[in-house]
Design a protein that fits this description.
This protein is α+β, with helices and mostly antiparallel strands. The chain has one domain: Gamma-B Crystallin, domain 1, CATH 2.60.20.10. Helices cover 17% and strands 31% of the residues. The strands form two sheets. The protein has a four-stranded antiparallel sheet. Strands 3-8-5-6 form a four-stranded antiparallel sheet, with no helix packed on it.
């Protein structure tokens, strides 16, 4: 009986550890990708937007848990690509264009109510 209780407690602790999001940071975004976070300063849960899995000029709706909850973003593609974020599903109304010269990369915290927690879809877009 004691082993069963110990196993249940250990299982509960392990499951809590698995669902607790790690605190990320802007520097945790993989090279050559862009990332969005649920908290300011690149912290909280992160969604990585890579060219390989999303393609260029293709609209995608934000995944579950990120729709209308994005607070910070890093545009890290370089090579003439930008991340366009939209305030509506299916990329119908542009909300903000995240643009940074390829050599610099850029990070933003959305503090304005016009941008904070309103992003619903995105496109990886060629700058030229």
């Amino acid at each position: 009986m004691k082993r069963w209780i110990l196993a249940c407690v250990l299982g509960l602790v392990a499951s809590i550890a698995l669902v607790t999001p790690a605190q990320a940071a802007f520097t945790d975004c993989p090279n050559g990708t862009s990332c969005v976070w649920l908290e300011a300063n690149g912290t909280g849960s992160r969604f990585t937007v890579s060219v390989g899995s999303n393609g260029v000029n293709v609209c995608h709706n934000m995944p579950w848990g990120f729709n209308n909850t994005v607070t910070s973003v890093l545009d890290g593609y370089g090579s003439g690509l930008d991340l366009l974020l939209y305030s509506t599903s299916n990329c119908t109304t542009p909300a903000v264009l995240v643009w940074i010269p390829p050599a610099d990369f850029g990070q933003w915290n959305f503090t304005s109510t016009a941008y904070n927690n309103v992003m619903s879809s995105y496109i990886i877009y060629p700058r030229n």
